[in-house]
Structure formats: structure tokens, C-alpha cells
């Protein structure tokens, strides 16, 4: 087996707010990192050599699992329909559809006249566009309201710096219109189809301006520029076609600017000026805006309305009042109906309301499940599209007539290798946190897996930004479950599974609750017979990787292994670097250690990199992406180096950096299975090779 790399140490002393810390691996951050995001070949040679040495070491340690990884990929691939097509979505004279040709890695965007499905045309074959690129992703793909144009935003490095391509559909094989560069990936056509509004990223990777471009030209006009580096900008158009909406905000505060759909060259007008702590989103219906907001202390959000001619805060009136414990997460609006998605105790439901105030709800009868809107283009329609799924039930696309309530299934997810929901069970448990809070847990297992502590457990967690981990169907986790494992989701604080206060309860000064919640879930599961101490593998991605870093320091004895994917583990140094793309917008989430001594001390108390100490760590697999603008590659690299230097067990600490991808890893639907198989193989290996406690 290859020996682990021993990176050099270059002591660096950092003094901040009267506090001093050491960072012996700060050299792993390339000073030229902004350009590396755009061109990975510019990475400093000594850093590249080190990352490749780490990759070689990880491959060496797990070389005995290579056949298993291939088997896992084959299993996962066998659960994917080779030629899969999603339900077509009507829009006026055309229906638009996305699907995969047999064996294809990437989707194909198509359309056909709604009355002539046989007259299909290809709008974008992502497989052809991706040819010759090691990494390729499409963020947004959209047609213009008049159906004459098609545009898509592509990323060829994984850096989330996009180029927008625009084509006239009458001449798809001819010369493309001038592209748009340095885009965040967000764009929208004006309702008259004469202009494209797009979001520009600054030199730090922040979405900071909205530009307008007349179709066919290559010059752009600044429409809006955000002065606050902590706010990110987006742009959209209402389903009604009445308005273009520029949105800006952070995790606490939002603001919307309005451009009339009939006058896209008009200067934007602020709907309601930003107020600290006020969040709102606008949807247009008739002569009014429907507003999803936390105004007036509605921490779980409510729905209000205001005239579109006078959208100011003083004219907002309640439509659907605030109900604590019912967190309204999303809203859709049509000419005659509104629908909203709400969450209670980690489950969701959809409620539909007509103009007369009559309501009905969609609410399956399962222990754990998920309902989501499936989108759509039409405004003057009574059809609602939604997706239903659960850990045991593959996805189902439905269409419901909101007036008659007639419901039809448009598509059921196919599992070619076979899937019988009756062979699986799903449980919803509650773990008691140290402060008495009840933390939801979703567990999936086969119906015949013994609940006596003998089966290993994979426990997944996230817990940040109010992002809930919904209990969805996953063909990938079945490879572990079918091998006698339990798979569980810890719905820890910092997410919004129990409402917005659940998010606030794991944010800022309350952040340590996220970590203690995860540990409480692990111990509660083992107490109930789902797994046992030393036979659990913990798994977290991005901000969930922060949880992995914290629990590795807090309770390493609980785990046979820990998987940290693009993990946010160098929290103190990252939050102290205001040139990084996400740092200013993240200060409301974690605190600002550049100006607030209490925030500095709090972050230092749990930051994974700062809290590494001589202790017996479990086996750890960290995965990074070289062009990741969210969690930069040097975070897991530094963390692994310091962990290995302090580890007092014989368990390996491993790093694998994808040198050709960013935050999301490989993008092809089959290529991405390789990372999932690596994680599962590591989990199986970690449990099998961990000595009994």
C-alpha cells in the first residue's frame, strides 16, 4: 500500500481581534485561485503534485474495493432507465420535453407541436455539447415566450461561471447569436421575447449585476447593480408575463425590483425596500401580487396580497395567515388558483386555493414522503403538476385539475432491475437532543433486516441554510439497504424540517445544536436497534461536511467511518477571507469573525480544522473538487493533512480531489455513479475493517 503523503508545514501565524491561531497548511491555497476556477491548468505545480499524491494514496488504500465499486456501479446503473423521458410540458402551441436517449449521459431538450407529437425537433443535445469536455453542466435551458428562441447556460470547468448560448429556432443549424460570458447561470427572456436579462458574476464569483441584452446584439446594459457584497442577485419573469422581477438578498433579508413586462427597457422600481430580517417573494395574479413572506413576525411564513400598481409594504394584506409549525416553503400562481407547499414535522403537503377561497390539500398517508411542484409554463390553466415519492416509492409525476380535482398519473419512475416497495420499510423516529428538542429521523431498511444492532447504518445529515433534506426515493442507497444496511436521514436543526425556527435553532450562536442533534440521532438509532456504536458510517456534503468535521472531533468512537463530500471544514479561515465568493453572504449564517469577537470564539469552538487534536479518529474519506467556488479545494486538503498529523488510530484518513470538477462532482448520469459507488464501497470497507468495540 502507498504511504500517505506528508505535506510540508509552513508555519503561519494569524492574529485577529486579539486572538492568534496557527495555520501550517495555508500554502495549499493558490494565491491565483480565481483564475484556477476558470482554467484548472493554472494550479500551482506543487499543489497539483500534492493533490495527485493524495488521490494515489486513497486509491491504494481502497484498491481492494475496486471490483466492489464496479459491481456497485453496475447495480446502480441497472436501476436507471436507459432511455428515459420526462412528461412533456405544454406551452401554447408547443409541448417541451426533456429526456435521455438510450445509454446517454446527458439529457436532450426537445419540443413538438402539441397537436403533432410526431413532428419533434431537438433544441439541445447536451451529449453533443459536452463532447470534448471533461466537465459539462447546463444550469438553465429555456425557450422564449414567442417560441422563436432557445438559450442555455453552460459550465465547462465546474466553477459555476457560465456562458449563455442563444439560438433562433428557425435556424438551429446556422450561426449562433453572440454568447453571453461570465454569467451566474440565471437568465430570463422578456415577455416580448426581444431581450435577454442575465446575471453577471464579479471577480469574486458573486452574482452582483443584472444586464439586459437586445436579442441579436452583443452589447449589454446594466439594469441593476447590488451595492452590498453580502447580497446575491437573481432574475425571473412572472408566469403571467406581466413582470420581470429582479431579486436580491441574503439568508435574512430580501428585496425585489420590478420591470413591467410590456416595457422591458424601463428602469426597475423597488417593490418594498429591504428591511433587516424581512424576506419576501412576489408572484403575479391578475392585478395583484401574491407575496410569500415572514412579515410581521410570521417566522413560518404566510401569504399576503397587494395591488401590482402599488406594491409597497403599506398595502400588503393577509391572504393566508401565519400558523406556527406550518412552514410555507413555496408558492405557485395561475389565473384562477394559487397553490402552496407547506412542511410539518419533516413531511410536506400541497394546498390548492381558488379565487373564492375554497381549498383542498394533497397529503399522502405514509410515515415519510415528499410532495413537490413539477413546474409548468401555462398561466391560464387549471392543471397543477406535482411529484410524489417516498423512501420506498419511486417518483410519480401527477397532473391534477384544480377545479374538478381529477388526478392522473403522467409517469412512474421505472427501475429496470426491479423494485418492490413491499420489500422495504420506512420509519419516522424522534431523537431527544440534549436540550430536550425532538429531532426527526427517517429510516429506510428491508422488511427483513433485523432491528437488533447487528445491521450497519449509514447516517446522512446536513443542517444549514434552512435547507430541508426531504425523504425522497433514491435508487443509489438501495445498494447498501439490499446488503442489510439501514439508511437514515438525521433532520437536524439548521434545516427547516420543523419550520423556520428549526433553521434558526441551528444557526449562528445556535450552530452547535446541529452537531449535538446529529450525535443524538446516532445514539437514539443505536438504542432502538438501528445500527450499533462503531458500526455507523456518517455522511455529509458541503455544509453537511461541517457536521462531519464536528462529529469527528466530538464523538469519533461512534463511527466506523466518516464521508465528507466537498466539506466546509475550514470555517474560521474561510469566514475571515472576505474575497471568497460566499464569505460576506455567509456572515448572517455563522457570524463575522473579522469584526465580532464572540463570533470568532464561537466558530473557533467548533470549526473542524481548528478543533483537530490528538485523538483516535475513525476512517475518513474526504472528497473535493478543484474548481469548486463554494467549498474551495484547499479546505478538505488542509483538514486531511492536519487530521493525519494528529490521528492516534491506525485508521486511514483519505482525500480524493476531482481535478476536473467542482462542487457538484461529475455531471453525467452514469459518471456520477462512480462517486456514489466509491462512497458505498468505503462504507462497506470501513465497517468490515473496524475492530469490534
TrEMBL record:
- Peptidase S9A N-terminal domain boundaries: 4-412
Listed InterPro entries: AB_hydrolase_fold, Pept_S9A_N, Peptidase_S9_cat, Peptidase_S9A, Serine_Peptidase_S9A
Among the Pfam families in the record, one is Peptidase_S9
Query: In its UniProt record, which GO terms are filed under biological process?
Result: proteolysis
Q: Which SUPFAM superfamilies match?
A: alpha/beta-Hydrolases (SSF53474), Peptidase/esterase 'gauge' domain (SSF50993)
Q: Does the keyword Protease apply?
A: yes
Q: Which protein, by its recorded name, is this? A: Oligopeptidase B
Single GO molecular function: serine-type endopeptidase activity
Q: Which UniProt keywords apply?
A: Hydrolase, Protease, Serine protease
Q: Which residues form the Peptidase S9 prolyl oligopeptidase catalytic domain?
A: 473-686
> What is the similarity comment for this entry?
Belongs to the peptidase S9A family.
Amino acid at each position: 500500500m502507498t504511504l500517505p503523503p506528508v505535506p510540508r508545514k509552513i508555519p503561519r501565524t494569524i492574529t485577529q481581534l486579539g486572538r492568534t491561531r496557527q495555520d501550517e497548511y495555508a500554502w495549499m491555497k493558490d494565491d491565483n485561485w480565481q483564475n484556477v476556477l476558470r482554467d484548472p491548468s493554472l494550479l500551482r505545480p506543487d499543489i497539483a503534485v500534492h493533490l495527485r499524491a493524495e488521490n494515489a494514496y486513497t486509491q491504494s488504500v481502497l484498491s481492494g474495493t475496486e471490483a466492489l465499486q464496479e459491481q456497485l456501479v453496475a447495480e446502480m446503473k441497472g436501476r436507471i432507465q436507459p432511455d428515459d423521458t420526462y412528461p412533456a410540458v405544454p406551452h401554447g402551441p408547443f409541448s417541451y420535453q426533456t429526456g435521455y436517449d438510450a445509454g446517454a449521459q446527458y439529457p436532450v431538450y426537445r419540443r413538438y407541436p402539441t397537436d403533432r407529437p410526431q413532428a419533434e425537433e431537438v433544441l439541445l443535445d447536451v451529449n453533443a455539447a459536452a463532447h470534448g469536455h471533461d466537465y459539462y453542466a447546463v444550469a438553465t435551458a429555456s425557450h422564449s415566450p414567442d417560441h422563436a428562441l432557445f438559450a442555455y447556460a453552460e459550465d465547462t470547468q465546474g466553477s459555476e461561471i457560465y456562458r449563455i448560448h442563444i439560438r433562433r429556432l428557425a435556424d438551429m443549424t446556422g450561426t449562433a447569436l453572440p454568447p453571453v460570458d461570465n454569467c451566474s447561470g440565471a437568465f430570463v427572456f422578456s415577455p416580448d421575447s426581444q431581450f435577454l436579462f442575465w446575471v453577471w458574476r464579479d471577480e469574486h464569483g458573486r452574482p452582483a449585476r443584472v444586464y439586459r441584452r437586445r436579442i441579436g446584439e452583443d452589447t449589454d446594459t446594466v439594469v441593476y447593480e447590488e451595492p452590498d457584497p453580502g447580497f446575491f442577485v437573481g432574475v425571473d419573469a412572472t408566469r403571467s408575463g406581466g413582470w420581470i422581477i429582479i431579486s436580491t438578498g441574503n439568508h435574512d433579508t430580501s428585496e425585489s425590483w420590478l420591470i413591467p413586462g410590456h416595457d422591458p427597457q424601463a428602469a426597475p422600481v423597488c417593490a418594498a425596500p429591504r428591511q433587516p430580517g424581512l424576506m419576501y417573494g412576489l408572484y403575479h395574479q391578475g392585478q395583484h401580487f401574491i407575496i410569500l413572506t415572514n412579515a410581521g413576525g410570521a417566522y413560518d411564513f404566510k401569504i399576503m396580497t397587494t395591488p401590482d400598481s402599488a406594491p409597497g409594504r403599506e398595502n400588503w394584506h393577509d391572504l393566508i395567515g401565519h400558523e406556527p409549525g406550518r412552514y410555507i416553503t413555496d408558492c405557485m400562481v395561475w389565473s384562477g388558483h394559487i397553490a402552496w407547499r407547506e412542511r410539518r414535522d419533516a413531511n410536506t403537503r400541497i394546498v390548492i386555493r381558488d379565487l373564492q377561497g375554497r381549498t383542498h390539500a394533497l397529503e399522502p398517508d405514509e410515515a415519510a414522503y415528499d410532495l413537490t411542484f413539477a413546474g409548468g409554463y401555462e398561466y391560464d390553466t387549471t392543471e397543477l403538476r406535482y411529484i410524489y415519492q417516498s423512501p420506498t416509492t419511486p417518483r410519480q409525476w401527477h397532473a391534477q385539475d384544480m377545479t374538478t380535482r381529477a388526478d392522473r398519473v403522467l409517469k412512474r419512475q421505472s427501475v429496470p432491475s426491479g423494485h418492490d416497495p413491499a420489500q422495504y420499510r420506512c420509519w419516522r423516529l424522534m431523537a431527544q437532543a440534549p436540550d430536550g428538542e425532538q429531532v426527526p429521523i427517517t429510516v429506510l431498511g428491508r422488511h427483513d433486516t433485523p432491528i437488533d444492532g447487528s445491521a450497519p447504518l449509514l447516517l446522512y445529515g446536513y443542517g444549514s441554510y434552512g435547507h430541508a433534506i426531504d425523504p425522497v426515493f433514491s435508487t443509489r442507497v438501495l445498494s447498501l439497504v439490499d446488503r442489510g444496511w439501514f439508511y437514515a436521514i438525521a433532520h437536524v436543526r439548521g434545516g427547516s424540517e420543523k419550520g423556520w425556527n428549526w433553521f434558526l435553532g441551528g444557526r449562528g450562536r445556535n450552530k452547535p445544536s446541529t452537531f449535538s442533534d446529529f450525535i443524538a440521532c446516532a445514539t437514539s438509532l443505536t438504542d432502538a436497534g438501528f445500527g450499533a456504536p462503531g458500526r455507523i458510517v456518517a455522511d455529509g456534503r458541503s455544509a453537511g461536511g461541517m457536521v462531519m468535521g464536528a462529529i469527528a472531533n466530538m464523538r469519533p468512537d461512534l463511527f466506523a467511518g466518516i464521508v465528507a463530500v466537498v466539506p466546509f471544514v475550514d470555517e474560521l479561515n474561510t469566514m475571515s477571507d472576505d474575497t471568497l465568493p460566499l464569505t460576506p453572504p455567509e456572515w448572517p449564517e455563522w457570524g463575522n469573525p473579522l469584526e465580532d469577537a464572540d463570533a470568532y470564539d464561537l466558530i473557533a469552538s467548533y470549526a473542524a480544522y481548528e478543533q483537530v487534536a490528538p485523538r483516535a479518529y475513525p476512517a475518513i474519506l474526504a472528497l473535493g473538487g478543484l474548481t469548486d467556488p463554494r467549498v474551495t479545494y484547499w479546505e478538505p486538503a488542509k483538514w486531511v493533512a492536519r487530521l493525519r498529523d494528529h490521528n492516534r488510530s491506525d485508521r486511514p484518513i483519505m482525500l480524493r480531489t476531482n481535478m476536473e470538477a467542482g462542487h457538484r462532482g461529475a455531471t453525467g448520469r452514469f459518471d456520477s455513479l462512480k462517486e456514489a459507488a466509491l462512497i458505498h464501497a468505503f462504507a462497506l470497507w470501513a465497517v468490515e475493517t473496524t475492530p469490534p468495540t
